[in-house]
Amino acid sequence: MKELPPLVQIKGLRDGLLVSLGDADWEKLQAMLIAQIDERQAFFQGARLALDVGSQILHVTEMVNLRDVLSERNVSLWAVVSDSPTTVKTAQLLGLATRVSKPRPEESLRPAADAVEDETALWLRRTLRSGTRIEFPGHVVVVGDVNPGAEIIAEGSVLVWGRLRGVVHAGAGGNREATVCALELSPTQLRIAGEIALPSEKKGERPEKVYLGNGRLVVEPWQPVNLKSNR
Amino acid sequence: MGAQIVTITSGKGGVGKTTAVANLGIALAANGKKVVCVDGDIGLRNLDVVMGLENRIVYDIVDVIEGRCRLRQAMIRDRRLPGLFLIPAAQTRDKTAVSPSDMLRLGAELRSECDWILIDSPAGIERGFKNAITPADRVIVLTNPEVSAVRDADRVIGILEAEEKGSPSLIINRIDYDMVKNHDMLSAEDVLDLLAIDLIGIVPEDQTVLIAANRGTPIALDDKSRAGQAFRNIARRLTGEDVPFMDLDSQDGLWQRLSRLTGRK
Domain B4-258 is classified in which CATH homologous superfamily? Predict the structure, then answer.
């Protein structure tokens, strides 16, 4: 086998190929990757590609362009792994996975509680449509609706300033203090830590909050925070 | 105004994309525009059947892209309307025969040939769908008032937004007013409430649409058909005209809000 330039490294994974890109100008990296693929067409034919772009910041146009160029070569891009929150967000927007079967060590080792204690939140000012999957190691705030078919998996709490009709998993790392709040709470399914609740028949007409109390999911009206309570 | 490329897509299959493309093409051509309908469903073509042009196919879209014929040779002229053309899909190939950049080139070439290019997208969100939306200036998402169709439409709208295609317009097809009244069908209002994009038309359920499509004489040619009227209205809205929505039932609050005029259209 030919020696690969260090900027583009290719590894086999259980469910496809993982290509790790080094630190260089994006244009250059993309050109190198494409050159590799063109050079070894038979190898890449029909491949499922996961791309580790490191801390590279990619916007929608760049990622769409890459996906198109790859798809023209009959290579399908299914995941983009990155340290950059912008890149991760872009990948999520395009419906690409952001983790591969073997998660990057630094991601899996980082304890969930840290992020939550940092009060890190992902702010999404748009409606999450069907097929969108948001995973975040902290809180998630959505200003917009969460439509049926959309999923939010947060290690912290989830707050939806809109209608919650998709699937939400708060406290995904096991945080039992996590809560879910929405202006209209009618999720397809709702989970906090390890507990699952299916929606009640009635349509949520007023803002509601869900939390874990005595091992069960409890729904109550969502009201101004009582400062004496710690929730 | 230069030529416009409009792609009609839905996510789910069987909601009426092909019928809509044929009828919008006819309605635009009947107003004196030069229109090319492109069948993007390579391998499962049927726009030619609905338009009644199946037996006249010599060359198809893959022949154009692979250089076996000139663009004009693959443009089949409609029997009824001199301004209406069809570029059929290839039946013996699949979606991988065409790439998004091929579609961009084809679109650019077609712009100099006509006023409107309507692309019929295949169902799904894979390669064929990508091919169909890549050259579009404007995308219309078509859905039925069914939960599964609306779910798929929502997914497609999400993808279009992520690809920065601009916000698409919505056609709600095959709404049956009696079923809506009995709460057996989602209302146009329910659909709009979830999808939250611009509505460009509502087409009532009409059995004659299917009959006409089977005969290859699209319903937009029938002055008496309500569905035909709905498609003609959508075509006028596409050209920028402000056409009030048809009064399908005066008791529905939506119609009152949508239609500027009181009384019947």
Answer: P-loop containing nucleotide triphosphate hydrolases (3.40.50.300)
